Amino acid sequence: MKSTQNTHHSDHRALGRDLGIFATDPLAGSGLALWLPAGSVIRDELERLARDIARGDGCVEVHTPVLGKRALFERSGHWAKFADDMFPPMQLGDEAPEEQLVLRPANCPHHAMVYAARPHSYRELPIRLHELAPMFRAERSGVVSGLTRVRQINLDDTHVFCRPDQVADEAARALRSALHAQEVLGLPVDYVRLSLRDEGPGYLGDAQLWAEATAALRNAAASSDLAARSLPLVEASGEAAFYGPKLDLQVRSGDGSDGSAREETIATVQLDFVQPERFDLRYDGADGDSHLVVMIHRGTVGAMERVTAALLEQYDGRMPLWLNHVQLQVLPVSESADAVAREFVDALLAHGLRAVLDADGSLGARIRRSRERRNYAYAVLGEAEIARGTVQLTDASSGWRGSLSHAEAVAILAQAYADRAAPRWPVAVSPDDETPAAHRE
């Protein structure tokens, strides 16, 4: 799981500003990121990855409102635990306090309501409900920061409702998918944390349920072969959710404001025996009786904001091909090459690739501009290339440079994009010379 990417670990806030990834504005409010076009590409791709993994795991998509009655969160326990971190309730006329509406601090109560919308048999479990869902935290202005501490979090969120005998398998499935997501992203997970309760107040549920949940997560970690990934399992008291223990994928990314290493939980698997009891979430068992389900909270890709911040710092802003907002910048040397360059760009666009035609300024300036903007690759088209039906292509990430036909370039880039992988170029050449010899100024 350790990445071999040569990283600079720049601050994502500076990269986000310089590369046009996201912005903030006092008029919009602190901690509320404005996703700019380049950042929206990253977020869209992350959401697509999250959906692909969820569907591969048998999850079904749902959509739920960002608002809920105060009574909903009182029932779930969030009001008692997180009221200070929630936005104030909205009073509608002279309605009773329990009728007040609240921006949700978590998505699980709504998913509990989806499960409760109809009866369920033991034979149809597990049911896995997935949603790319926003939730809200009333972070104070002094602590919001970039994309890592925000007031709206857009989360890849799945809740599994299963029988007790399915818990270990479902937790292991969730952990494997979370690890797979980080491998695709190229983020180096430092360790898996088994987050346990401590002796302090605020935890819900009896000790026996917690012991069973903890044992199930240990079994899930053991069956996920963490050793093969060189990932230690570290137990941490006091890091559990208020409703149950969890497995957290921990990533150290960049430096904190005081110069220390900053650590983030980037994906998680949480067991919950409390919410099913509070919402009376049941299934009809083989014995004819009604039984409480077990609820598993799972996130694979994680929060769009935190993951984007980690990716920007991991890759110093030059995103992998599948995440990059400009996958190929096409540079005609002169006006006589514009028509062929446009045909090449159109072919790239027709294959779903993100390509742009850049004809403004000298070739050297345009190449520098492409590198400064952290575009993935650029292709030069001059008279010699037009005569041969080729482009001179440079992969700015790996340094690969070579001559390819238009069809070859499209096919290689399209395959790499589909695979979420680095392109497989046909030959290796020196990465030292940025400008093809025929086009040097």
TrEMBL record:
UniProt keyword annotations, A-Z: Aminoacyl-tRNA synthetase, ATP-binding, Cytoplasm, Ligase, Metal-binding, Nucleotide-binding, Protein biosynthesis, Zinc
Protein EC: 6.1.1.3
An annotated GO cellular component: cytoplasm
Catalytic EC class: ligase
Keyword rRNA-binding: no
GO annotation terms (biological process): threonyl-tRNA aminoacylation
UniProt key word Ubl conjugation: no
Reaction(s) the record says it catalyses: tRNA(Thr) + L-threonine + ATP = L-threonyl-tRNA(Thr) + AMP + diphosphate + H(+)
InterPro entries recorded: aa-tRNA-synt_IIb, aa-tRNA-synth_II, aa-tRNA-synth_II/BPL/LPL, Anticodon-bd, Anticodon-bd_dom_sf, Thr-tRNA-ligase_IIa
A Gene Ontology molecular function term of the record: metal ion binding
Domain Aminoacyl-transfer RNA synthetases class-II family profile: 37-320
Pfam families membership: HGTP_anticodon (PF03129), tRNA-synt_2b (PF00587)
Family: Belongs to the class-II aminoacyl-tRNA synthetase family.
Protein name: threonine--tRNA ligase
Species this protein is from: Flexivirga caeni
